[in-house]
Input
Amino acid sequence: MATIKINSDKCKGCSLCVNACPKQCISFSKQFNKTGYHWAVLEKENDCIGCGFCYQVCPDVCIEVYR
Amino acid sequence: MKKILSRPESLKDNQMHYCPGCGHGIIHRLVAEAIDELGVREKTIAVAPVGCAVFAYDYFNFDTTEAPHGRPPAVATGIKRTNPDKFVFTYQGDGDISAIGMSETIHAANRGENITIIFVNNANYGMTGGQMAPTTLIGQVTETTPFGRDPKREGYPIHLCELLSSLTATTYLERVSIYNPKNIINAKRAIKKAFQYQIEGKGFSLIEVISNCPVDWGMTPLDSIKWVEEKFIEEFKLGLIKDKTEQI
Ligand SMILES: Cc1ncc(C[n+]2csc(CCOP(=O)(O)OP(=O)(O)O)c2C)c(N)n1
Ligand code: SF4
Output
């Protein structure tokens, strides 16, 4: 069991986490956040292995990893 | 489930102003994590540069001051010499450290000041809109080299670590990058080691972090990290440049 929590307000939609996730489980929201970005969301919730790659590459430190 | 990775205590919960995908945020986190792990947050004094990291005091959760452009090594020298029990580091861009501040950098290194420098090399002047820096690659298009950097006119990229390695007093110099998780974890190891050396009184350390500047490079964040991997680190080879403690 593993999951991540993404801070939708702080995310700038840079896509580095989407690219780094070895399980391709992150995608983008359809809506915009208050700064005007599509934020990253954990779409395939059951596929997350809690490796923390997304945390490592996130320039805005908006991801928390749980395992 | 337990929380295994989250914002370090040494990083405030503020929104950073950096462009989407900019490496500054990653490097801030690595510095903050290293300081947490070494338990020196309460006695840290950081010196921020002029450049995109000018607001570092809004993000770091420890005392941080701001130096005139290029002068952080001189300011850090004064702070460290008058407060030798404090933990003192500077955080500087390539324009700051190797253009306007080259003199302060070389002389602080040559004196072997017991400070640490985190040098963020993004191959241009980020804050002012992407002008050529001393580290700009040959042929790289910037605001001030619209036809690409021509060595006949603008000289060659300066390799600061190699330059400083010839100085007797420098202790530890390493070049790392942040274009993928493996390199990010390695960059943290180097930053922590440099910090540890200062705590042990071993003298001058500088960690050069090869970073990205997607907006001024005119690239998407993904293209920018690809450019780092394919072009940037071809010119600026990663690895240990000098560790005097290993030579003895
Ligand atoms: C004395 C002085 N000269 C020039 C400037 C204008 N200036 C502001 S930031 C900057 C360059 C910053 O580039 P760099 O150090 O590479 O950092 P980056 O923004 O890329 O992180 C310059 C020239 C200034 N603020 N002060
Ligand atoms: S201008 Fe470049 S260095 Fe500055 S915040 Fe934007 S991407 Fe980062």
The first strand of chain B starts at residue 3 and ends at 5.
